[in-house]
């Protein structure tokens, strides 16, 4: 039977009957060493190697001692494996006057991420619910502003937010940063929830209304349990987004409350002292661990979150 | 029965919707105060000579004149254009090719997809620091090639003013191409199988099918991807700060860094506001035509 390979190379004139027979069965080429397969897998493997090399280099470097780094090349596997750089990066690396390592930044990031995720998703899900089921006059206008706002460079809004936070006394605090993350997470999350709740059959909503359920009751009893998958997607988007943020962290917090990314940058790019590349790489991996963990655990849902970002209202 | 239920809902909505309005207060505040108000505020104050603190002493276009006569701003713009154009082209081409390869009903598709996408989960800071290390001239790629025997080999983008932006581009592409691949793959999967069958029956070579049939069909996907990448490019900041701190000698400055430095380090708010307004303008030039095409004229899927 004519498989994909011959169909690709052979132009007009292939036996159309064979095509039609093999067509509906879905052209699944059996694994074999055709030139086409070598090309496809070869390209994919080379590219995959390019993507994996940085991770490999980071891990390898973080397990070497400094003398070994100075002598060898960065791609060589460690001869003498040591975990000291990891310990140092976590517990004793210095940023400015603080010498308690990245652990401080880690806990700050946890304290920032957890409430940010909960708060922003709570607000956005209720927004999306109101927008899809309880449209009020002007709701669409606010929603449009919100979506347009997602494209406005943050730089245009950061200073007014500094003033707003200063007015309510939250500038430089973790809670101030939580508010900022909730604000900037709102467009994408609201869009996500609005689209989901709009797809819920209207009859369900109407039936609940006839039974006398109100705004909050329908939300908590009917909508919330149904939307659990979309909540998971939102949580994934927010955890990675908040954890990876650098700009807001650097603007809205103080050195004591810097999130992990900011502290990492300060450790690695500090000009004083001898550069300890192994400690730097250990610190870098540590900072990347949380989003990487979320990525590998969530799998398909992570992709769905990305796709959600691409979906337009 | 059903109609009576609906009919009963209509009038009461005026009252009951109070709950929805109360629940939407955060959204309304964000939309009006931060997104709309904040933007207008910044634009207005970009016409003042605010220094350490914002004040309403208007100086016309002074800040903009100073901005456009600052060499640093020009460097920033040039870098952003080079980075932006190249990263758009490369990430779209590479992303599409990878997606097309993955779409060949291959084995281990999930493994490859996972590998291509994982850098996207990492922050720009982590990306920048990683590539700073790999591109380190004394230990990284250059050192390795020289150690193999090619003594005169030179590749140290992070310490060469002329090519530093390409060093950042390499890191940026590593981080972001997986996203493009993902969006493209979703687009390819949305193409009707019958199109492929028809093309096969007609004996059209595969590359031609992609180029003349599939890609035109994926126009909406391409445009959406383009807008997503473009609005991300304008925000380019963390990567530069982590990888080069704007160096060497300010050769890898970008607009977002210019804004931050003037607002929070140089205590020259007016300059920062003017620069950020220019950033807004550049985004508007990209987004407004797209929004018009997408939502304004003629509904498209």
The CATH H-level homologous superfamily of the largest domain in chain A: MetI-like
Radius of gyration of chain A: 26 Å
Low-confidence stretches of chain A: 1-24
Total helices of chain A: the number is 16
- Give the overall form of chain B: globular
Number of helices of chain B: 14
Structural class of chain A: mainly alpha
Overall spatial form of chain A: globular
Q: In CATH, what is the class of the largest domain in chain B?
A: Mainly Alpha
Helix content of chain B: over 70%
**Elements of chain A, N to C (H/E):** HHHHHHHHHHHHHHHH
Question: End-to-end span of chain A in angstroms?
Answer: 45 Å
CATH architecture label of the largest domain in chain B: Orthogonal Bundle
CATH domain fold name of the largest domain in chain B: MetI-like fold
Could you describe the largest sheet of chain B, including whether it forms a barrel? Answer: none
- In total, the number of strands of chain B is 0
What are the salient characteristics of this protein?
heterodimer, A: 313 residues, mainly alpha, MetI-like fold, 71% helix, globular, B: 301 residues, 2 domains, 14 helices, disordered N terminus
Describe this structure as you would to a colleague.
Chain A: Keywords: Membrane, Transmembrane, Transmembrane helix, Transport. Chain A: One of its GO terms (biological process) is transmembrane transport. Chain A: It is found in: Cell membrane. Chain A: Its main location: membrane. Chain A: This is Sugar ABC transporter permease. Chain B: One of its GO terms (biological process) is transmembrane transport. The complex is a heterodimer of chains A (313) and B (301). Chain A folds into three domains: 25 residues, no CATH class; 52 residues, no CATH class; 209 residues, MetI-like (MetI-like fold), CATH 1.10.3720. Chain A is globular, with a radius of gyration of 26 Å. Chain A is 71% helix and 0% strand. Chain A is an all-alpha fold. The N terminus of chain A is likely disordered. By secondary structure, chain B is mainly α. Chain B has two domains: 45 residues, no CATH class; 235 residues, MetI-like fold, CATH 1.10.3720. Helix content of chain B is 74%, strand content 0%. Chain B is globular, with a radius of gyration of 25 Å. The relative contact order of chain B is 0.13.
């Amino acid at each position: 039977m004519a498989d994909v390979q011959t169909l690709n190379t052979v132009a007009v004139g292939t036996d159309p009957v064979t095509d039609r027979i093999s067509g509906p069965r879905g052209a699944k080429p059996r694994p074999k060493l055709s030139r086409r397969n070598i090309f496809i897998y070869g390209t994919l493997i080379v590219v995959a190697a390019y993507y994996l090399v940085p991770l490999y280099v980071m891990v390898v470097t973080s397990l070497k001692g400094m003398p070994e780094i100075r002598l060898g090349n960065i791609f060589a596997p460690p001869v003498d494996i040591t975990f000291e750089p990891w310990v140092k990066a976590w517990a004793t690396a210095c940023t400015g006057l603080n010498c308690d390592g990245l652990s401080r930044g880690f806990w700050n990031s946890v304290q920032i991420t957890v409430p940010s995720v909960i708060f922003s998703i709570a607000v956005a899900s209720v927004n999306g619910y109101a927008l899809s089921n309880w449209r009020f006059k002007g709701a669409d206008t606010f929603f449009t502003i919100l979506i347009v706002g997602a494209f406005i460079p943050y730089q245009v809004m950061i200073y007014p937010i500094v003033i707003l936070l200063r007015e309510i006394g939250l500038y430089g605090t973790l809670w101030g940063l939580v508010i900022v993350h909730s604000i900037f997470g709102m467009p994408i999350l609201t869009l996500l929830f609005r689209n989901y709740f709009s797809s819920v059959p209207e009859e369900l909503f109407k039936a609940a209304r006839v039974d006398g359920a109100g705004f909050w009751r329908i939300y908590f009893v009917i909508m919330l349990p149904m939307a659990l998958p979309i909540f998971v997607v939102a949580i994934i988007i927010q955890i990675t987004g908040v954890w990876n943020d650098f700009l807001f962290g650097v603007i809205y917090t103080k050195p004591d409350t810097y999130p992990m990314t900011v502290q990492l940058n300060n450790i690695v790019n500090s000009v004083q002292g001898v550069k300890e590349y192994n400690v730097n790489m250990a610190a870098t991996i540590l900072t990347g661990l949380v989003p990487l963990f979320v990525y590998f655990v969530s799998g398909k849902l992570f992709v769905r979150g990305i796709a959600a970002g691409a979906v337009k209202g | 029965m059903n109609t009576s239920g609906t009919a009963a809902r209509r009038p009461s909505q005026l009252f009951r919707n109070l709950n929805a309005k109360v629940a939407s207060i955060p959204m309304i505040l964000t939309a009006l105060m931060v997104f709309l108000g904040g933007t207008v505020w910044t634009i207005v104050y970009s016409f003042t000579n605010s220094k350490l603190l914002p004040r309403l002493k208007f100086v016309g276009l002074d800040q903009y004149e100073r901005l456009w006569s600052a060499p640093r701003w020009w460097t920033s713009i040039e870098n952003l254009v080079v980075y932006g154009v190249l990263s758009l082209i490369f990430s779209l081409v590479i992303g599409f090719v990878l997606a097309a390869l993955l779409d060949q009903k291959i084995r281990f598709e999930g493994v490859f997809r996972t590998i291509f996408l994982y850098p996207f989960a990492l922050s720009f800071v982590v990306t920048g620091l990683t590539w700073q290390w790999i591109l380190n001239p004394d230990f990284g790629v250059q050192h390795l090639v020289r150690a193999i025997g090619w003594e005169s080999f030179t590749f140290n983008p992070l310490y060469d003013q002329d090519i530093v932006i390409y060093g950042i581009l390499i890191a940026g592409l590593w981080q972001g191409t997986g996203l493009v691949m993902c969006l493209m793959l979703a687009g390819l999967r949305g193409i009707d199988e019958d199109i492929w069958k028809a093309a096969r029956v007609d004996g059209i070579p595969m590359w031609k099918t992609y180029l003349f049939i599939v890609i035109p069909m994926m126009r909406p996907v391409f445009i959406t991807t383009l807008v997503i990448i473009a609005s991300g490019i304008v925000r380019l900041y963390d990567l530069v700060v982590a990888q080069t701190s704007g160096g060497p000698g300010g050769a890898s400055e970008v607009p977002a860094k210019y804004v931050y430095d003037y607002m929070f380090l140089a205590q020259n708010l007016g300059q920062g506001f003017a620069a950020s307004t220019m950033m807004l303008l550049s985004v508007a030039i990209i987004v407004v035509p797209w929004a018009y095409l997408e939502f304004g004229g003629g509904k498209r899927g």
